[in-house]
Amino acid sequence: MRPTVHDIAATAGVSLATVDRVLNGRLGVRQKTIDRVEQAVRALGYVRDMTAANLARRRVYPLVFVLPDGPNSFMRNLEYEVRQAMTRSPHERTAIKLMTTRPLDAEAIARTLDGLDPKDVAGVALVAVDTACVVAAVDRLVSLGVPVVTLVSDLPGSRRAHFCGIDNVAAGRTAAGLMGRFARSTPGKVLVVAGSMRLSDHMGRASGFADVMAREFPHLSILGPLEGRDDALAVRRVVGAALAANSDIVGIYSLGAGNRGLVEVISARTGPRLSVVAHEVTDYSRKALAEGHFDAVINQDCGHEVRSAIRVLLARADGLDPVKAQERIRIDIFLRDNLP
Amino acid sequence: MRPTVHDIAATAGVSLATVDRVLNGRLGVRQKTIDRVEQAVRALGYVRDMTAANLARRRVYPLVFVLPDGPNSFMRNLEYEVRQAMTRSPHERTAIKLMTTRPLDAEAIARTLDGLDPKDVAGVALVAVDTACVVAAVDRLVSLGVPVVTLVSDLPGSRRAHFCGIDNVAAGRTAAGLMGRFARSTPGKVLVVAGSMRLSDHMGRASGFADVMAREFPHLSILGPLEGRDDALAVRRVVGAALAANSDIVGIYSLGAGNRGLVEVISARTGPRLSVVAHEVTDYSRKALAEGHFDAVINQDCGHEVRSAIRVLLARADGLDPVKAQERIRIDIFLRDNLP
DNA sequence: CTGTTAGCGCATTCAA
DNA sequence: TTGAATGCGCTAACAG
User: Fold this and answer.
1) Stretch 236-275 of chain B: residues touching chain A, C-beta under 8 Å
2) pLDDT over 90 at B225, yes or no
3) What CA–CA distance (Å, rounded) separates A252 from B94?
4) Using one digit for the tens of pLDDT, what is the confidence trace for A88-127?
5) Helices A232-245 and A259-268: crossing angle, nearest 10°?
């Protein structure tokens, strides 16, 4: 039977209320009393039952998620996970509000953030575009006491409390490790297609990829990164043009979205098979894997990211800091055969 | 404010106790009353607060984990995760007991299982060896009302409630997908090293691997599976002999344990580089990846498996059946750059 | 068959 | 600065 507040109240010779005050660091307790309680806590090895605590204090934390709208499958998937979290809200003492802005529109994100009233927001999670105005808007919220976390794409210069996403440099390196082993051993070019260089996740991937390719697979040179604006049509256009102009392309690394456009180009193409590594499991990339157009897909688990964001925000709102090691998001690799 | 038992008691016009009886499927309630309560539940969209429920019924479920002892890193890792779960026990209303038996010793497992008193065990998780006597011991427990789950390696013919592990056929296919792409495009042999063919997980991997290799990479033929008994010394011996006898080996698929022995052989070897795919992230395989001896390691998350086993056992002990979709364990692929 | 009542471990008024 | 009392949502005796 593990000790309860009653036990420590008894051994410390004080009342429940006083124990509670000490446990929660509330003021209005004599130092002498504090010491007595803390000693009892140590002596009995007391550890608070958080579920009972949450039951008693029925406080609800209003959280805001800011995501891009538009057809991007990955982002829609992310939105789905946020909605899933909303259904769990009652259990997690959260009240989640979902807001969307135009993709890659930094000003729209900043406006949304600026429109938030710190009085009725306990925390904010956003997919950031790395721009001065977004940094300013985030820092404003933080200075007003509202914890902010970035989701999927980070905002390095800001005061955000945490980044809920993968190590994108490592993801790029991983992609290079696969590409280098997959591609023919004859010299050639690898085409790199990104969404936008204003997204810090895309930047990171491109640099990790280039790094490992140069060091470990010097017979393959990099073409790009081209910007496909995470848009299927644009991706189709830039990739089509690059393939037409370069007959020595042996592989493609698609590190952003718009994979539908990529599949259209390569499935229509004749000539030797390309090695293709892309990001994010979506209906399109799953199909491309199954049909053999993609060799591998690197993925980040949206569900984990959303749940992590909530945990971190809640912890910060309660004044604790999260166990960072626990919040690491894995870089998943999927082939056709280990798709979930 | 979401509805509580009080609300549904009020709208159904019954008492709290009756609501509780219906909610928990306890008998001694008229069908008419049951209907009234269930209707109120649906009407109000009631969903039970499990944390409050667990607080109220402070029942503790004694669970038993049966693992092999010995130096196998993966199994020690699994044991570590079980011990982690023991530290969480107070919160999860479990009391976990850890028992170990000699590796691959089916009789020892059966004896351990037979020694369990159903009165003070609410569930059992074991790493199975696929043998008639183990099946019999498991079925005995099940017939006595004790739910059993298999961990890591399944027991297909038994009455176990669930298998907490990966789809090993798919894991073998995944390994083949990697091996086929990694290995030189010239014809050659791929050596397959297993632990024991009495382990259903090893069987599954070998068959999935052979399947995809034959269909997709016919220029590579399979040598083996050799049995390394999950033992570093034995692995070193059989692999060393195979390499000496076959100059056309281009890759090795190590689907069992004993990777330390494998690394010793291939790091001492001269000649063209081999493509190596192994299983389970351990200190050894991690080092082998980092140093370039292994190209990829396929992994199953022990932590997930142990937590899943506990959830399933608890659910079964409460008479519910677990959400199988939620309990799927992923097949992780790690290269040097995405190691956790 | 059904209802009353007293907790589970903790937080939080309201008094003292 | 401290304590007594009440309730969070649910379960479980114990009566009726």
Assistant:
1) 275
2) yes
3) 50
4) 887 788 999 999 999 999 999 999 999 999 988 999 999 9
5) 40
The verdict on a CB contact (< 8 Å) between A337 and B170 is yes
- Which of B87, B333, B334, B339 is the best mutation test for A, with the most CBs of A within 10 A? B333
Supply the pLDDT for residue A273.
87
Q: If you measure CA to CA, which chain B residue comes closest to A51?
A: B51
Residues in chain B within 8 Å Cβ distance of A275? 181
Fold of the CATH domain B61-165+302-329: Rossmann fold (3.40.50)
Scanning chain B, the segments in alpha helix (DSSP H) are 5-12, 16-23, 31-44, 50-56, 73-92, 106-114, 132-143, 168-182, 200-216, 232-245, 259-268, 283-290, 302-317
Q: Is B247 exposed, middle or buried (CB count within 10 Å of its CB: 0-12, 13-18, 19+)?
A: exposed
Taking all residues of chain B, what is their mean pLDDT, rounded to a whole number?
A: 92
* Intervals of CATH 3.40.50.2300 along chain B: 61-165+302-329, 168-299
Structure tokens at B27: 């008998």
Rounded Cα distance, B89 and B106, in Å: 29
Predicted confidence (pLDDT) per residue in B107-134, tens digit: 999 999 999 999 889 999 999 999 999 9
pLDDT tens-digit series, residues A272-301 = 889 999 999 999 999 999 999 999 999 999
CATH 1.10.20.140 for the A168-299 domain, yes or no: no
pLDDT at position B283 = 93
B78 token code pair: 């699994």
Q: Would you tell me how many other CB atoms lie within 10 Å of the CB of residue A124?
A: 29
> Residue A46: which nucleotide is closest by CA–C1'?
C9
Alpha carbons A273 and B213: distance in angstroms, whole number: 19
Q: Where in chain A is the domain with CATH 1.10.260.40?
A: 5-48
pLDDT higher than 90, residue B165: yes
Strand C within 7 A of A57 CB: yes
- Beta carbon pairs, A and B, within 8 Å: 82
pLDDT digit string, tens, across residues A16-44: 999 999 988 888 889 899 999 999 999 99
Judge contact between B97 and B62, C-beta under 8 A: yes
pTM over 0.70: yes
* CATH number given to A5-48: 1.10.260.40
